[in-house]
Specification:
This protein is of the alpha/beta class. 27% of the residues lie in helices and 27% in strands. The two termini are 20 Å apart.
Length: 403
């Protein structure tokens, strides 16, 4: 849709946020708390995308964050998480189950030890890290395999992405905004400015539109005239219940998947489609050509073969999982950008339009800091202080001349 500004639109808001996952929800919450009239537009259900099946780990050890601005964004995001969760619970009455435990970035094989020792050297001046041997790992969590060679010990957090999405949407409603279960079908514009959106049930006039549509963000390319190089990255996880005492540590590995205990006791086991578990070259600058216009492939189904793969890998880390009860096998897609960094900010060609997508495997981790960055742009028309915002602007994917 290119030019609809001449139509009369009765429904109004200050800002429409498209997407009710963790990123869209947090943005909407912070804008509503600042006094904006906010509408969240969601075509499926709250937390229906990657937010509902992600591991929710708030950790900086590993290769999901690229060195430089991306890692620094992750550091700021981790620092503000506890305070944001406290604020969210106060505003929503919903506990997203954020909690902290010692974390073990655990090595079972040579490659994992190399990866995590490199991470230790890379980040030891920025984070409180130390290497412990396999015996120390088992003192902390006795069910860890005797194969464990050692681990980077580092305290970090974990949160339930689905409950975080519910909590933020509920907070918006309690603060005077609303959730509209409608699918976006177009952007209403007057010249080079956004003046509203069109959804399957009507239209909403607004000053600002934030597109937080996750892996489905490319649907908006034709409406806004700007490339959004995001592709769906398939991911799966098992939810299990393990008899015995609660785990005393989070366990992350580079090639065997994580074992993460939620605050309610459910274990999130295995990973498929993550940056390291997928086998992709995590050190590459570009995962795919940002100007590739081939249609994305959405694989949203859990696969039995993948469950067996994740179970086999996890048992090598913690043989006691043989006694666990499978509660759920979840699958979905994550929004992976061409350079593996989020896309956050306005597009040069259309005033009032802001993108917040492309977070890959770290969307839950980066949701609060992304929310603050977007709120600062909407409310004060400036970048958030203390964050390398320029590295994440959509303008880095400026179309080539003549394209």
């Amino acid at each position: 849709m290119t030019q609809r500004g001449v139509q009369t639109v009765k429904d109004t808001a200050d800002t429409v946020v498209v997407g009710a996952g963790v990123v869209g929800g947090v943005i909407s919450h912070l804008l509503a708390k600042a006094g904006q009239r906010v509408v969240i537009l969601e075509g499926e259900s709250v937390g229906a995308g990657s937010s509902g099946h992600g591991h929710g780990v708030v950790s900086l050890i590993g290769k999901d964050f690229r060195p430089g601005p991306h890692f620094e964004l992750g550091c700021v995001g981790a620092e503000i998480y506890p305070d944001y969760v406290t604020e969210l619970i106060e505003d929503s009455g919903v506990d997203p189950m954020y909690h902290r435990l010692p974390g073990l970035s655990l090595a079972i094989i040579d490659e994992e030890e190399r990866i995590f020792r490199e991470q230790l050297e890379l980040h030891k001046d920025r984070l409180e890290l130390r290497w412990i041997d396999g015996d120390e790992c088992r003192k902390l969590e006795p069910r860890i395999s005797i194969e464990a060679r050692g681990a980077v010990l580092y305290e970090h957090g974990q949160v339930d992405g689905y409950r975080l999405s519910l909590a933020s949407s509920r907070a918006v409603e309690l603060l005077g905004g609303r959730l509209e279960m409608r699918k976006l079908v177009g952007i209403i514009r007057a010249g080079d400015r956004v003046v509203g959106i069109e959804h399957t049930g009507g239209q909403i006039a607004c000053e600002t539109v934030v597109l937080a549509m996750g892996a489905w963000i490319r649907e908006a390319e034709a409406w806004i005239g700007w490339p959004i190089p995001v592709r769906p990255l398939h991911g799966e996880v098992l939810n299990v219940r393990l008899p015995g005492p609660p785990m005393r540590a989070f366990v992350l590995t580079a090639r065997h998947g994580p074992i993460l205990q939620r605050k309610d006791g459910i274990l999130l086991v295995g990973s498929l489609g993550g940056v390291t578990m997928s086998g992709m070259d995590v050190d590459a600058k570009h995962v795919f050509d940002p100007y590739d216009t081939s249609p994305p492939v959405f694989d949203l189904a859990p696969h039995e073969d993948n469950a067996r793969f994740m179970i086999d890998r996890a048992l090598r880390v913690m043989p006691a999982l043989e006694e666990a009860e499978l509660v759920a096998h979840l699958a979905g897609v994550r929004p992976l950008s061409a350079d593996r960094m989020p896309i956050i900010g306005p597009i040069p060609s259309l005033r009032g339009l802001i993108l917040a997508t492309g977070h890959g495997t770290k969307g839950i981790h980066l949701a609060p800091i992304t929310g603050r960055m977007v709120a600062e742009l909407v409310l004060n028309r400036r970048n958030h202080e203390g964050v390398p915002s320029e590295a994440f602007l959509p303008s880095r994917f400026q179309p080539p001349v003549g394209a």
